[in-house]
Amino acid sequence: MSEELLENEQPSVVETKADGQQPAESSRVSGELSSLMVESVTDYAIFAIDTRGRVLSWNTGAQNIFGYREAEIVGRDASIVFTPEDIESGAPVLELRTAESEGRAEDERWHVRQDGSRFWASGIVTPLRDEAGSLRGFVKVARDNTEGRQAEETLRQREEELTDFFENAAVGLHWVGPDGTILWVNQAELDLLGYTREEYLGHNIAEFHADRDVIDDILRRLTNNETLNSCEARLRCKDGSLRHVLISSNVRRRDGKFIHTRCFTRDISERKRIEEDLREQRETLETVNRVGQLLTAELDQQRLVQAVTDAATQITGAHFGSFFYNLIDERGESYMLYTLSGVPREAFAHFPMPRNTDIFNPTFKGEGTLLLADVKKDPRYGKNSPYYGMPEGHLPVTSYLAVPVISRSGEVIGGLFFGHPEP
Predict the structure, then answer these.
(1) What confidence score (pLDDT) does residue 328 get?
(2) Three state DSSP letters for 12-55
(3) What is the DSSP letter of 181?
(4) What pLDDT digit, counting tens, does each position of 20-32 carry?
(5) Does pTM surpass 0.85?
(6) Has residue 382 got a pLDDT over 70?
(7) What is the pLDDT of residue 147?
(8) 3-state secondary structure string, 38-107?
(9) CA angle, 264 as apex, 261 and 269 as ends, to 5°?
(10) What's CA 272's distance to the chain center, in Å?
(11) Phi-psi region of 103 (alpha: psi -120 to 50; beta: other; left: phi over 0)
């Protein structure tokens, strides 16, 4: 580095005169020591620039980093070590102006070596002024931080890849703090349950579990440092429906302290639905088989009809079922009997026998099965006197199913009727 530029910036290593002025010999020694110190630095580029941006001095560190020998670069514009993009944007000039106005300019940017290769460097530019305060030039100190930059870039890319992987994973993911607060969630879990990120984050995970004892048990086991594999639970969706899930989770700890859980949520609702369907089918087959055996063995008509009514009510999932059927007595007169299932017989104590109303008539005529999600919305409902609907004291019926029972000869024996208070 130039003695001329540095001698006014470096403290003297000898005593000054009484009037505060250094002798010429002292100034020369100070400059030589400064130059020696600068030249001894090999891992930092230190070079001086004049007010027009031309290189005045170039230390060994600058040669090691940039590749230019001092004789090859002194007198040339310092912008030669900047990238073409930065030169075009005026970065070299802006750096010097910032250092002049603010007393210091710091930057991190790509630089160019003599062989054209690029490296990432951090640098500091400071102005050099004489005793009168006039600007004489600048000193820049820079260091090659390419390895650090590459390590940071690799880490950033890995973080982005992990974030992308978790965010776009097909399985639901959420992180939970030791107090149960949801700290992070991916899109798959939000889509599964129907919530927005704002509606989910920051809430306690217990709010979304249908079974409080299940989530309490999960959090207790995780606090005890257990790793959970495929714990079955039910999560509550925004629309009120429930999702059956399997939760696998473990705890991240730092210095033994519980930081958060990492929970993987796999939707098994379809599997549970299939299992439930299979269970119902098994039960239905068992019921049908049991009734079939009863039909061939039971001689008591009342018991037989009751068994059929009970079985049909169970299979349909109705709240209650009934079977109204006609009999002919010994005098040849027809009269109607009935059986009930799901409710005590007293519930029908004041219930009149079905009449040939627009709703009941199709069943007793054998016109086929009648299935209504809401009987009160059917256009045939409430058209007949004297009740114009259900009589007072009638069992609550919303969804309705009626099936005619027909003999092999084609005669309508009666009808099975089923009701449920919900649509």
Answers:
(1) 67
(2) CCCCCCCCCCCCHHHHHHHHHHHHHHHHHCCCCEEEEECCCCEE
(3) B
(4) 444 455 445 444 4
(5) no
(6) no
(7) 84
(8) HHHCCCCEEEEECCCCEEEEECHHHHHHHCCCHHHHCCCEHHHHECHHHHHHCHHHHHHHHHHHHCCEEE
(9) 135
(10) 23
(11) left
Q: What are the backbone angles phi and psi of residue 358, rounded to the nearest 5°?
A: -60, -25
The type of residue at 19 is D
- Residue 127 scores a pLDDT above 80: yes
Q: What six digits make up the tokens of 364?
A: 């007793």
3 state SS of 284 = helix
Q: Output DSSP code: residue 256.
A: T
Sheet holding 320-328, edge to edge: 334-341, 320-328, 412-420, 399-406, 370-372
Rounded Cα–Cα distance for residues 231 and 245 (Å): 8
Q: What is the pLDDT of residues 96-105, one digit of tens each?
A: 999 999 999 9
Which DSSP string do the residues of 290-324 spell out, in sequence order? HHHHHHHH---HHHHHHHHHHHHHHHHT-SEEEEE
- Mean pLDDT of the region 355-372: 78
Structure tokens at 120: 């990432």
Q: How far is CA 85 from CA 67, 68, 117, in A?
A: 20, 21, 14
**What rounded mean pLDDT belongs to the chain?**
81
3-state secondary structure of 249: strand
Confidence of residue 1 (pLDDT cuts 50, 70, 90): very low
Which residue type sits at 33? L
